[in-house]
UniProtKB/TrEMBL annotation, chains A, B:
This is D-lactate dehydrogenase (cytochrome). Its EC number is 1.1.2.4. Its cofactor is FAD. The keyword Oxidoreductase applies.
Length: 465, 465
């Protein structure tokens, strides 16, 4: 494990807040060691920093009550969704209260005429899509995990559909939030666009719970397309695949998904998902549109792929085949771990302008080889975002040090290419040094906003800033 | 004219700053009465509040220098693009310095591989599109005026293409800005998405120059579609037209534009643009896609229109006919003024969930009739946004009072429908009371952010907050 910095604890305040919250929330207030540990960071290599207690509110008013108690006693409050974040977002470096929003999981309204819905933060993306299916609607954002929508908003999540539908910042119309002083606000109305004042919606999206706790989310929805087709195509090299992606985007084909798996990842998928794909770099695509439209899109992509040496191009409109292919893509994390049983997976998350993508991915692979690291790569390549997953023996300090060096090297490379150290995972604890490298003087204004809204630093302290 | 509130002036500071700026900028520093008046508000009914001087910087460093001088002497700094805003955004209620960015009008880079470009804030949207055309690219956001891209970012502008391509918030990748203390920051890298810290890009977009001056903008671009077709269709009522729009959006037809003109507006367009359209409510549409795709979209829309009593459906792929139709749409402001020569046009800008659009537009028309106001209406109806243009004799105080009442009534109605008082024009001075009605407690946090970043309130004081 990599130690996360501990922050000074306000023992007196924490004791007082614990007492009040225990009385107020009875069995919805928990302090057992195992539940506390589950509410600290449990993924990746950042060490767990458990909160002092976990509270399970049922309403916005209860969240506000918890925050007011914590504000009065200057005690940290950490919003918790499903705990699937990757950069230590839910750790409690100064102790405090984890506010577990999983029981605030009601879908409050679906406005099918307006293509939007209102949900509580504990609703997961799969829960929402199951609920919507009968109405011919879906919500497109799909990070790997079945994350909560509150958590996805807080980390500005995206996933495989972002190339067509954007990220959480593009798909949230309005938020309700409890601010650090316990006040409840709404950031916007339900209109599809607005120029009314500062964009507090977008300020809270990606703030990782450091400026307020999201208690209600108004989401844009999409109609399920008339037709969906998927395609796959193998390429002689990662470089060739990336160039085909670049051309596809420039050509304006409205791909719904365009995902890269490198040769190692394809091998892992073959083994894990019982597939029989050629073990060379692969692009997986999905097209949304009319019956004629998706065929046209796939054919146009097919011609582009050919130019770049694409082979074994296969298109399907069969729901079964499509689901199997995308299930394999979604299982890539587990499939990759299968390449080295017992290893831990450390995911990088750089995103670069697409013109630099081929160079960036190829350099990352060469560097990993050079350092003797096993590092299968998958990517949301239509956005220039890819994940090199380092498979590390955490008991080998030399390997851990190498992984740390690789992560830093790759983040620096992406930043030097006018890219970012994080396309979708967020800053949390793990990427704080890189945020400063990436945005320099701008971070001082982020800190000023944080101080203005949360002067006692009770909202998820030790993250981002 | 409607008087805008004056704010206390810092005479000593202004005198000092004027002296320093005059020496530094020589003939790029101007204090003539007429140029000062041109740099205050000159559109709509809000009275002009001229700045004390106008400076024309040529670089980000010069903007930073101006801001540092003004910060030191606590003098207001008001960024100025083309002066086409409608809510008093560029007025100087406490005096101060207008920073005219029109000479910072260079297109710094076009990255055609990445579908983005970097421009200075004084570049206008038409200038950019003229520059891009040869490369097969375009920038879709088109407010009525040939506004500057800095101004468009500052007011979160949109226009007729927003239904397909989004607003400025969706089409800016990164900003460079001079902050209230004179520091230069970059808000993001050029990657297509990022989860790196607070979204300062979106915070500055729509902040109307109250948090910083935008000095460079990285914009997303679009490839010019393979095919573009346009269509028009007449409807028996505004209600029927709005219902056809709602169905079109729900059906998922990716319309690039879908604009409503009410019967009065069609009459005005006929007279002004020498057209011969039936004088009943009209929808104008544009479709972008492949050759087959645009035909398919138009045909699907045609069937929907028929269900709602649409008549005289006409589709064209002729560039000439299409340009003539959209030119008429873009000239609607002037055409409407022709309905009552000598009158001033006061534009409303509400935006509501699309399920409430028909009711909102119809209520607005009934109310205007009831009050005896001439009020042609056009709208970006795919987004639920419409402009009722009040044609007012400004020398008749009774009429001005009625217009004021109407504007307040309509804003209240939109807010009661979960909509906004401003879809795209912004708050400025004119809509401040409605912002508080619309977002209530949230405005306190906007004010806190403003105080944190601009403690001396030098950046465009008296706007938004």
């Amino acid at each position: 494990m990599v130690q996360a910095t501990a922050l000074p604890r306000n023992e007196v305040g924490i004791d007082s807040a614990l007492g009040i919250l225990k009385q107020r929330f009875a069995d919805r207030f928990q302090t057992g060691a195992s539940i506390r540990e589950q509410h600290g960071h449990t993924t990746t290599w950042i060490a767990n920093q458990a909160p002092d207690a976990v509270v399970f509110p049922h309403s916005t008013e209860e969240v506000a009550e918890i925050v007011r108690i914590c504000a009065e006693h200057k005690v940290p409050v950490i919003a918790f969704g499903t705990g699937t974040s990757l950069e230590g977002h839910v750790n409690a470096p100064a102790g405090g209260i984890s506010v577990d929003l999983s029981q605030m999981n009601r879908i409050l309204a679906v406005h099918s005429d307006d293509l939007d819905c209102v949900v509580q933060p504990g609703v997961t993306r799969e829960q929402l899509n199951t609920h919507l299916r009968d109405q011919g609607l879906f919500f497109p954002i799909d990070p790997g995990a079945n994350a909560s929508l509150g958590g996805m908003a807080a980390t500005r999540a995206s996933g495989t559909n972002a190339v067509r539908y954007g990220t959480m910042k593009d798909n949230v119309l309005a938020l309700e939030a409890v601010m650090p002083d316990g006040q409840i606000i709404r950031t916007a109305q339900r209109a599809k666009k607005s120029s009314a004042g500062y964009d507090l919606t977008r300020l809270l999206i990606g703030a990782e719970g450091t400026l307020g706790i999201i208690t209600e989310i108004t989401l844009r929805l999409q109609g399920i397309p008339e037709a969906i087709s998927s395609a796959r195509c193998s390429f002689p090299s990662v470089d060739a695949a990336c160039r085909a992606v670049m051309m596809t985007i420039q050509y304006g084909i409205p791909v719904a998904r365009i995902e890269l798996l490198d040769a190692q990842s394809v091998g892992a998928a073959n083994a894990y998902s019982k597939l029989d794909l050629p073990e060379v770099p692969l692009l997986l695509l999905e097209f949304h549109g009319s019956e004629a439209g998706v065929v046209e899109q796939a054919e146009t992509f097919g011609s582009i792929a050919e130019e770049f040496g694409g082979q074994d191009f296969a298109m399907t409109t069969s729901t079964e085949e499509r689901t199997a292919l995308w299930q394999a893509r979604h299982d890539m994390y587990w499939a990759s771990l299968g390449l080295r049983p017992g290893a831990r997976g450390i995911s990088t998350d750089v995103c670069v302008p697409i013109s630099r993508l081929a160079e960036c991915v190829t350099s990352a692979q060469e560097k990993a080889d050079e350092m003797g690291l096993l590092a299968p790569t998958v990517g949301h390549v239509g956005d220039g975002n890819f994940h090199t997953l380092l498979l590390i023996d955490m008991d080998n300090p030399d390997e851990v040090a190498k992984a740390d060096e690789f992560v830093g090297w790759l983040n620096d490379l992406a930043i030097s290419m006018d890219g970012t150290c994080t396309g979708e995972h967020g800053i949390g604890q793990g990427k704080k040094p890189y945020l400063a490298k990436e945005l320099g003087p701008a971070t001082a204004y982020m800190a000023a906003i944080k101080r203005a809204l949360d002067p006692d630093d009770i909202m998820n302290p030790g993250k981002i800033i």
